[in-house]
Amino acid sequence: MTVRPVIEPPRRAERTAPRETRLRALDGLRLVAALMVAAYHYGGRGGEVTAAWGSSPTVQFPTLHEYFAYGCLGVQIFFVISGFVICMSGWGRPLKSFFASRAARLLPAYWVAVLLVTAVFALPVVAYEAVSPSDALLNLTMLQQPLGADRVLGVCWTLWAEVRFYALFALCVVLPGANRQRVIMFCGLWTLAAVIAEAANEPLLDLVLMPEYAPFFIGGVGLYLVHRNHRDAYAWGIVGVSWLIGQHYAVRNLWRPASEDAFANRTSYGIVLVVTLGFLAVAAIALGRLNRVNWRWLTVAGALTYPFYLVHEHLGWVVIETLHRDLGLPSGATFALTIASMLLLAWLLNRYVEKPLTPRIRTALSRVR
User: Fold this and answer.
1) What is the pLDDT of residue 257?
2) φ/ψ of residue 103, rounded to 5
3) pLDDT recorded at residue 292
4) Smallest Cα–Cα separation from 111: which of 155, 153, 78, 148?
5) Residue 22: what are its φ and ψ, rounded to 5°?
6) 0.85 cut: is pTM over it?
7) Which of 349, 340, 347, 335 is nearest to 301 (CA)?
8) Are 149 and 135 in contact (CB under 8 A)?
9) Nearest 5 degrees, angle CA 302-CA 33-CA 66?
10) Which sign does the torsion angle of CA 320, 324, 60, 345 carry?
11) CB neighbour list of residue 156: distance below 8 Å, 6 or more residues apart
C-alpha cells in the first residue's frame, strides 16, 4: 500500500490591492486644495497682500473674504492626500528607490521657485524685500526653518512638515518593508507618541512627532489601507481616530472668539466641516466612488499643483499690485488673472523644469550604491 505524502495547503497570503491605476480624482483634489490656499493668501488674510491690494482684502472682498479665510485648511487636506500617496508610493519599494522618488519630485521645481522669487524680489521696481544671499542659498536645502533663516517661500513650512513625515515613514515602514501589519503599527504608535508629545510639552518631541499635523498624515495612510481593502476595520479605526484628533487641532489653532477687529471670524463648525469634507473626499477616492472622474486633464492639473503652490503666494503679490494698483483692474478680475498667471507659470515650471530634471535626478539617485 502506497502512502501518499501529506501536502500542506499554501498559507493564505496577505490580501493585496489590484494593480494601481492613476487616481485622477486625487489629482483634481490636489488642485482644489491648492486653490483654497491661494484664495486664503490673496483674499482671506491680512499682512503683505494688503500692500499689494492697496487696502485690506476685507475691503476688496466684503463678503468673500469670510469664506476665503477657510482656505488655509487646504494645507490639512494636502497632508491627508500626502499620507495616502506616500503610503501608496512606498509600498513594495526599497528605501533607495523611495528616497530617489521623493527627492526627484520635490527638488527641481523647489530650487527654481526659490531662485525665481529671490530674483524677482531683488528687482528695484518690486517693493518687497528679498532675503539675504546667504539665507537664499540656505533655502535651497529645505532646512532653513529649523536653522532659523529667513524663508524665501512663505509656504515652505509645509514642506518641512512633509520632509519629517517622509523620514518617519521611510525609517519605520519602507526600510523594513511595507505590509499591512507594519503600517497599522506605525499609525498606532505615531498617534500615541504624538499625544504623549503634546502632553509632555517637550520641544524636541514636538519637532519630531508633529502632534498638530500627524493626524492628517496618519489619516491619509489609513485611507490608503482602506483603498487596499474596503472592509479593513483597523484601517477605518485609524481614519476615524485621526479625523477626531485632526479636527480638534484645526479648531484649536484656527478658531478665535468673534471680534469686530478680527480679519475674519471662522466658526468652529465651519472648520470642522472643511476638515470633514477633506477626509470624505479622499475616502470617496479610496473607495472607488470617484473612479468615473477620470478626465485626462486632471492629470495635468495634478502636475501643476506643486509648482503652483510654490510660486503663487509671493509672486502673486507682485501680479496683484501690477494688475490692480498699476493697471486699475477690478478686484475680481485681478484675483482671477492672478490665479491664471500663476497656473501658467506652474505649467512652464512643469514643462521645462520638472519633466526634464525629475527623471534624471531619480535615475542618478537610484544608481548610487
Assistant:
1) 81
2) -65, -45
3) 92
4) 153
5) -65, 120
6) yes
7) 347
8) yes
9) 150
10) negative
11) 110, 139, 142, 144, 145
List Cα–Cα distances, 162 to 12, 79, 133, 209, in angstroms.
36, 8, 25, 12
234 in Cβ contact with 184 (< 8 Å): yes
Query: Residue 12 pLDDT > 70, yes or no?
Result: no
Q: Are 242 and 219 spatial neighbours (Cβ–Cβ below 8 Å)?
A: yes
The half-sphere exposure of 151 on its side-chain side, counting CA atoms within 13 A, is: 17
CA 30 to chain centre: 8
Angle of the 331-349 helix axis to the 95-121 helix axis, nearest 10: 130
Query: What are the helix (H) ranges across the chain?
Result: 24-43, 48-53, 57-60, 64-68, 74-90, 95-121, 133-139, 156-169, 180-200, 203-209, 214-228, 233-254, 268-286, 297-320, 331-349, 355-367
Greatest extent of the chain over all pairs of C-alpha atoms, in Å: 101
Chain mean pLDDT for the chain: 92
Neighbours of 269 (CB within 10 A): 10
Q: In the predicted model, what is the mean pLDDT of residues 225-250?
A: 98
Average pLDDT over residues 332-360: 97
> Look-up: residue for cell 503634546?
198
Residue 81 grid cell = 492626500
320-327 average pLDDT score: 95
Residue 169 and residue 176 in contact, taking contact as beta carbons nearer than 8 Å: no
- What percent of the chain clears pLDDT 70, i.e. is strictly above it? 94
